[in-house]
Design brief:
The protein is mainly alpha-helical.
Length: 472
């Protein structure tokens, strides 16, 4: 591929969610280990590593098959999270892997770890990867067995002291999940292989197919089911729709009956992920980062509406209170920002007397663009206002913005026809900002119309000035 094509590939891979990147990396690494024709796999894998690790073009990325810890924990990749946000079922902290690896190599499965590293050394020396997968699986089973042993209470044995040697409480919380996923690797791999790359619609036929794929005893345990559901969620175009699987298994939309089934955890997972997205939205708004707000609001809107309409939730139940809390958090995050926008617009467009222009705040292009982004933010909020409990403030603010910007733009254009030179230069900057706001509020056609009106106003004033000078 040409350099341009490679850059396009890397840009595309960088836009994928972390779970999708991990899934692709996992599949291409397996293709390499099986000794298949891997020209394409090597190319994509190289770019994925650079995206994930932030490597430069000239960096020599170390092959992941050379890292025994990565090979051991490869089945965990789809479930790893980096965030400090509270964990949910079906997730494992990435930071837990290193302490667990160190414990396995030191105490938990030292003999198996040495044998595994010896097998890797032989594979690297010979260049043949035929026995690599067998060695990986053998060590994964040994690691799962060691984790089960150290986690199982034994009379007269000090389990807490043994666990404390592995790592801090967060690592211990993840330990059983790590062992369970390693033990059930084949079942999870089979489930992943049966899933389509994306489920755009999670309707009855797809739900029936997923129910059949989940009908494996090892995946039905309370420990493994959340991970199996997480795999399915990663393929859903609308992840909140995982609740439909729980509703189907309960044969009812009543939350009590849904919660009584093992699949009730799907609702808990969906609520947790919506809460996490609401927290991310709040953080982005506080940092004035609005690039992803539209997408975040759509996901939150669809998720909140889906849970409210497809589940019979009681206001005083745990799920009902959690959903109410999510809506309130979204509303609080959005409302204060929405209400601040008219003030920013007035500060830029407010007409001033000629004598006050010299002391007026400078109109900065970046400030204008930030304000335009905020106006667009209000417009996006208007689309989802009803479900997110911000209907009144959004509609009122948007209407006020339209009225004020329209009147201010017309007034500023008229003001270009008079005033001294310094005042006219400042008003031209104001008109330029007003036209930018008109583009967001009323569209390109209206903005172009006001732009021509401003040009005519300036041209007419210049002609009038020249005519007056000629008469004198």
């Amino acid at each position: 591929m040409s350099q341009t094509s490679t850059e396009r590939l890397r840009d595309y891979l960088a836009q994928l969610p972390p779970q999708a990147q991990a899934l692709l990396m996992r599949e291409f690494e397996r293709a390499i280990e099986r000794g298949e024709d891997v020209a394409v796999a090597n190319l994509v894998l190289e770019q994925l590593r650079k995206v994930v690790r932030g490597a430069d073009e000239d960096d020599e990325a170390r092959p992941r098959t050379d890292d025994p810890a990565r090979l051991l924990f490869r089945p965990l990749e789809p479930f790893l999270v980096e965030s400090n946000f509270p964990m949910r079922a079906g997730q494992i902290r990435r930071t837990s892997l290193q302490p667990v690896w160190q414990w396995l190599a030191r105490d938990g499965a030292a003999d198996a770890a040495r044998a595994f590293e010896a097998a890797l050394a032989e594979v690297r020396q010979s260049g043949a990867s035929a026995g690599l997968e067998t060695a990986v699986r053998k060590f994964q089973m040994a690691a799962a067995e060691a984790i089960a042993t150290v986690s199982t209470p034994v009379a007269g044995d000090d389990r807490q002291r043994a666990l404390a040697r592995i790592g801090p409480p967060n690592v211990i919380e993840d330990l059983l999940a790590i062992g369970a996923v390693l033990r059930a690797r084949e079942a999870l791999d089979t489930l992943g292989g049966r899933l389509p790359s994306q489920l755009r619609v999670f309707a009855d036929s797809q739900i029936a197919s997923m129910t059949s794929a989940l009908s494996v005893p090892s995946l039905q345990t309370p420990q493994l089911l959340p991970f199996a559901l997480s795999l399915i969620m990663q393929r859903l175009a609308a992840p909140w729709q995982i609740i439909r699987l729980a509703i189907k298994m309960a044969a009812s939309d009543d939350e009590i009956r849904v919660a009584a089934t093992p699949y009730g955890v799907a609702v808990t997972i969906a609520l947790h992920d919506l809460s996490f997205l609401a927290a991310c939205l709040r953080t982005d708004i506080r940092r004035s980062q609005f690039d992803n707000v539209g997408e975040q609001l759509k996901i939150l809107h669809d998720g909140v509406r889906g849970l409210r309409t497809e589940l019979d939730l009681r206001n005083d139940s745990s799920w009902g209170r959690q959903l109410t809390s999510i809506r309130a958090e979204i509303s609080n995050s959005l409302q204060s920002e929405i209400e601040s926008v008219p003030g920013r617009v007035r500060r830029i467009l407010r007409q001033r007397a000629d004598k006050d222009v010299a002391t007026a705040p400078k109109i900065d292009a970046s400030d204008v663009e930030e304000t335009a982004a905020l106006i667009d933010f209000v417009a996006v909020c208007r689309t989802y206002a009803s479900e997110l409990a911000i209907n009144e403030v959004t509609l009122r603010t948007y209407s006020n913005l339209q009225h004020y910007v329209e009147q201010s733009t017309e007034g500023l254009v008229q003001a270009l026809r008079g005033g001294d030179t310094k005042a006219r230069a400042y008003r031209q900057m104001q008109v330029k900002a007003a036209i930018r706001f008109c583009e967001v509020l009323f569209g390109q056609d209206y903005a172009s119309l006001m732009s021509r009106a401003a040009e005519n106003a300036v041209t007419g004033e210049r002609k009038s000035t020249r005519a007056g000078a000629a008469e004198r």
